[in-house]
Amino acid sequence: MTSAHAAPATSSATQTGSSDLVQASVLLYSDDITTRDAVRAAVGRRPARDVEVTRWLECATAFAVTEALDAGGWDVVVLDGEAAKNGGLGLCRELKNEIYDCPPILVLTGRPQDGWLAAWSLADDAVPHPLDPIKVAEAVAALARARANR
Question: Which residue has the higher pLDDT, 65 or 6?
Fold first, then answer.
């Protein structure tokens, strides 16, 4: 089950023109629609002055995530560590070990003390529940910048 929210699509994070605007596509995984809505609301179209999200893909299953990443074109991945059946932490570790040049991954952990799980999962960044919209937006913006500067 996936849901796409598209603006003019770009295939990878790019810096445009003299303003150095980073355009990024974000893949979001959670089995909980309220979590997906909270992340999308926190990040919005412009998580930072220099970062613009041009495309979203919401996935409710781990299979949909792997299928989308196999197709390519994603700059930032956000995985819910609290997702049922396939948690985002285990999925993150699997993706980091199996995908060459895997996009940067932000995991949403269950609580602040779960930072060690995020480290184990090989995530590039982590934000704990309850989600702080500012931290989520800052994390996505930082990961998009890192991807664009590769």
Answer: 65
Return mean pLDDT, the chain. Answer: 91
Give the containing element (helix H, strand E) for 25.
Answer: strand 21-29
Give the residue from 50, 42, 40 showing the smallest Cα distance to 6.
40
Q: What is the CATH number of the domain that holds 82?
A: 3.40.50.2300
Q: How many CA atoms lie within 13 A of 11 on its CB side?
A: 2
Sole residue written with tokens 């060690």? 116
Domain coverage including residue 136? 2-148
pLDDT at 11: 42
- Per residue in 16-40, pLDDT (tens digit) is 554 689 999 999 999 999 999 999 9
Domain tally, the chain: 1
Q: Helix, strand, coil % (nearest 5) of the chain? A: 40, 25, 35
Fill in the amino acid letter for 150. R
Q: Please state, in angstroms and rounded to a whole number, the distance separating the CA atoms of residues 67 and 61.
A: 10
**In this predicted model, what pLDDT tens digit does every residue of 118-136 receive, in sequence order?**
999 999 999 999 999 999 9
Q: State which amino acid sits at residue 33.
A: I
Question: Is 147:13 a contact under the CB 8 Å cutoff?
Answer: yes
